[in-house]
Design brief:
The structure is a homodimer. By secondary structure, chain A is an alpha/beta fold. Chain A contains 15 helices and 28 strands. Chains A and B meet through helix 10, helix 12, helix 13, strand 25 and strand 27 of A and helix 10, helix 12, helix 13, strand 26 and strand 28 of B.
């Protein structure tokens, strides 16, 4: 099973040297560019790449290094609800949870995570769906809370593996999933059944309900799965649209449904519960942006995630209200606004949005450029404006750039560089530090507390977040009245059961498969620790190939050994070091040839690598990976 | 000129495999461990490593790749003050500025920066002192504002290169510099002349004064260099110890000296001026820590930078006041507290500090452990507590861990992992997000504004920070009344002149050498872009060595080619890919041997690398560095 060639391989042109590193074939244009020194995390604001050439055909490598996929976990007992957070509970991202009872499995969300510092060279990290693959026939449906990549990103890579179950979600989310699937060539097209938040559906033996929640993308919803012993409630990503701590009427109404419900278990977003108080409500951000738009005297460049669709819609609305023209610069942004217009959640006149080429026809103070790249993404619109490679837009000192986003951990340097570039050209920059131009989509502690008070669960399982975040959320739940024994903090793959007909919560000693599955190029495979270790070492120390050609008859080197190194030290400045290394090589190989194991090239190679490593370490305090090549002639 | 062997090379033991990666020889124990996947930035809280074995003998490589060091910049005119921010103005770190007039050069600070994502494998980044090396005879002294590494870290690597000038600084800073020099074997010992903040000294033809400023380490000071046309004022790192925006009496007194002075130019810290309002004053942090200490019912672990010496002193004081015992766990912390005690800025009873081994003799609620590692540093005390490898300390659910620090950009993942590990063991964690247990040492916008009002400079040069930070500071200065034409925003190496006897400020078109100088192991050299590019590529893509042995007579491969790869793909799972690659190798080499250039091994190698690269890219979408080895026999 090796990866198949992509349908339109790049780098086969007439040039002798490999072309600049291509984007992953057909990777959706709103994904992180693989060539970036640091993969970025977290949003779909990754447009503006060169147009993709072909659809991705996903290849799957077998998991050969670990226990078999069908690890024996017997089905849950008849009086038991089994809940398995497959991933997303030791990180922020790749959310996916399975709930199983009465012979049915229901899945909630199917996200991926962007690669970070611990997984160099990897594109995305997927949930491990080994448990599900061995139980495909029980899967009754995949329920999706909203359309962000940490909730839908895994679908193209996973849906085939788990038997292509029906996807249940709201209109906009469904559109976003479908749009994304267009970038992949799937054996079977995904099946989506649109639901509305007030709808009640029957899946397998269970009744399933939905409720609207506040997040940063429209059509976000929570999910209620009715078990025989009460509701299992998933909030999805959630915050409150509060006014000085008072939730909106709409939220009060949505959560009103819990007044008379018997909630067995709550599974809830924990991302920002460790932040005290209330988060800035999105309405405050809208007010701030409205003021900036209303009062702007020069060109305004507003950069944000395309996934912050609610805010995007508001900006378009304000623009129209104050007679401004909009340039949309960034493919993901354009796509999202088009989807939103198509399903009617945004309305604007055709002449409100103008082409970037026609920008010069309008007075500066009437122009708003909506741009992607607020995270410093190397190929996004704003980066190109910053480094003066944008085809149409050059900054002017009267321009104002609004970075309507926070800085995702890991992106600080990239954003700093972006801000440096923008301010070097004289633009005025407004960030969320000094102005309420951004708010998180995840609620703080007091918002979580209010939600707990509405839902009043018997059992609590914090999800979405690193362990510390879950732990803080668990502490909050305890304060809110859930007994400590009724709380289970999961790890990825934890098999949690509510047993005895809703009597007690138990974490089984056995785990569902949870080794990392990763996407690299178009290939899905299990993460190789060896590969990661080597890449980290190479990225710091480089490598050194030493080639010795030995004359079998004389046991002596045929000629002076060759040394080829990359990423180690700058060889041109270290001639003497190289000369000394050659002596070490000669000595090591000739000695190996003289000893009783003479002719045992493996041993000679091992000796050679060791001698050279040790010598280079003593001279340079570096540990390049040494590859010994001994050719015996 | 190649690096000399360290005096006690490691890795020469009897083991066959290289020992675990050593720390840089004799690098001060409070530096970042080189083995860490991500080098950390910013503080001296890096203790607790295995004890160092020998002193570092710094080796210097010639700058061979760029223009000569003695780049021709004529001396400043007689009516001119020349100011060169050598570095620290395109980053946070490695602060060093030169000021030159009347035939004298004065230097302010000599810091280094920790390596970041753009310089993989590098330990530290130094100011480029090429300009000074060509003008050693003019250097009258090195003035140091305070003892943090971004102000003193460069000294052991630079002081010899610039002719070992006298260092002028206050007592504690001098002690910190001396302590650090003990780790290096210098040809000539550094010369330190202690000054006091109210002292007036004469250097060259200039009078120099000092004034006390608030930062996070005692003995921080600003510097006034009197030029014939007014004062050049350096604030050093600075914040205000304000109460609701009202500076302390001490600060009012210190800045009172500017009432009757004629300030020609202000060079001021810009690090946090982009943050609105006032920073949290350190006194608030002390109150918070006092309350936590007073009320703690279990063991308290307080983690912070050893460089936050003021705060460290307060914690020791509170501990004694509330009858607690202190365990100091972390070498840099112990060193700093000892220095502080030696010079009398902290006093405590001998029995207040107890040995970690004796901890069990005291009731939990009376114990405070001062630990390093709040940034997630892999080898620091707190990390070892977190991952249960600490020799003496195991966490208990009644423990409280106070992370008395912010998270330095780039360290988020490491700190997250630390918090996850700590909370997995049940400890309660207090961070600066939910409690005022940390404040920055750099003032916000309104603090900067107050300082500007006191100093009232004619010309303004923002220093210490990324360009965006300097720009925001420049905008503030303009608001405070400095005309735009009197403000110069420097880059590293900018030659700024105040000409015509204090008439106007000019940025010369020529720059002082500003290529990056870096420390890797014990070697100082100019940064190699090629090396960095290779390391970044290797860290994502790995490499592949292909070895073909060719029979010169037949022009055919002698045997099946060898393929050795690391960091590329997991070979064991890609046998078919390797087999196909062997075919490509055979085809490429045999073809090369058949063509008119037959025997031209260089061309054959080039062809081979290209064929293999292209093939691997098409199959895997990865671009490993391909090293072709062709042996002709």
């Amino acid at each position: 099973m090796i990866p198949q060639p992509p349908q339109n391989p790049q780098g086969r042109g007439p040039t002798r040297r490999p072309a600049p590193r291509p984007r992953p074939h057909g990777a959706p244009a709103h994904h992180a560019p693989r060539a970036a020194a640091r993969p970025r995390f977290g949003s779909s604001a990754r447009s503006s790449h060169p147009p993709r050439r072909s659809k991705t055909r996903v290849e799957h490598q077998p998991d050969s290094r670990n226990r078999p996929l069908n690890v024996i976990i017997p089905p849950p007992a008849e009086d038991t609800v089994r809940i398995i957070p497959l991933s997303g509970v030791e990180e922020v991202g790749r959310n996916m949870t399975a709930i199983e009872f009465g012979g049915d499995i229901f899945l909630v969300d199917c996200g991926f995570a962007f690669s970070e510092v611990d997984t160099p060279g990897i594109d995305y990290i997927l949930p491990n769906t080994g448990y599900l693959e061995a139980r495909r026939d029980k899967i009754r449906g995949l329920l999706i809370t909203h359309g962000h990549l940490d909730h839908i990103g895994g679908i193209p890579y996973i849906i085939d593996r788990i038997g292509n179950p029906m996807i249940y979600t709201r209109k906009l989310t469904g559109m976003m999933i479908k749009k994304r699937q267009e970038e992949f060539s799937q054996t079977v097209p995904v099946q989506i059944r649109e639901v509305e938040k007030d709808e009640v559906i029957r899946l397998g033996k269970a009744t399933i309900r939905f409720f609207g929640v506040t997040h940063t993308v429209p059509d976000s919803m929570g999910i209620i799965i009715e078990t025989p012993w009460g509701d299992a409630v998933f909030t999805g990503d959630i915050k409150l649209n509060h006014l000085d701590g008072e939730p909106s009427d709409e939220e009060k109404k949505e959560f009103g449904i819990f007044k008379n419900r018997n909630v067995l278990a709550l599974l809830m977003d924990s991302t920002n519960v460790w932040q005290p108080g209330f988060s800035i409500p999105e309405s405050t951000v809208y007010k701030t942006l409205e003021n900036i738009i209303k009062n702007s005297k020069g060109r305004l460049i507003v950069a944000m995630f395309a996934s912050h669709l609610e805010r995007l819609i508001r900006v378009v609305h304000f623009a129209e209200e104050y007679g401004k023209k909009i340039v949309i610069d960034g493919r993901s942004m354009r796509t999202n606004i088009e989807i939103a217009r198509e399903i009617g959640i945004i309305k604007y006149r055709d002449d409100t949005v103008i082409a970037v080429e026609n920008m010069e026809q309008y007075p500066k103070e009437n122009l708003i450029i909506l741009a992607t790249g607020a995270q410093g993404d190397e190929f996004a619109s704003l980066a190109r404006i910053g480094n003066k490679t944008h085809k149409y837009i050059r900054l002017q000192p009267t321009d104002t750039v609004v970075l309507s986003s926070s800085v995702i951990p890991g992106n600080e340097r990239a954003v700093q560089k972006l801000k440096d570039n923008l301010s070097r050209q004289g633009a005025h920059i407004i960030t969320y530090h000094a102005s309420d131009v951004h708010a998180s989509g995840h609620g703080n502690r007091e918002e979580a507390a209010w939600i707990h008070r509405q839902i009043k669960p018997k059992f609590f399982i914090p999800i979405h977040g690193y362990h510390y975040m879950l732990r803080v959320h668990a502490d909050l739940a305890e304060e809110m009245g859930v007994p400590a024994d009724n709380i289970a903090i999961p790890d990825n793959g934890s098999v949690i059961e509510i047993q005895g007909g809703g009597e007690k919560i138990v974490k089984l000693p056995v785990k569902a498969p949870s080794e990392m599955r990763v996407v690299e190029g178009n290939t899905v495979s299990q993460l190789s620790d060896v590969l990661m270790r080597d890449r980290k070492a190479l990225g710091q120390e480089g490598f050194c190939v030493v080639v010795a050609t030995i004359d079998r008859r004389t046991g002596r080197l045929h000629k002076s050994p060759d040394i080829i190194s990359r990423g180690f030290v700058y060889l041109r400045e270290n001639k003497e070091l190289m000369d000394q290394t050659r002596l070490i090589i000669r000595k090591s190989v000739e000695q190996a040839m003289r000893n009783p194991r003479a002719g045992d090239l493996d041993a000679a190679r091992e000796d050679l690598a060791e001698s050279v490593s040790r010598f280079l370490l003593s001279r340079t305090m570096k540990r390049p990976i040494v590859i010994p090549v001994i050719v015996s002639i």
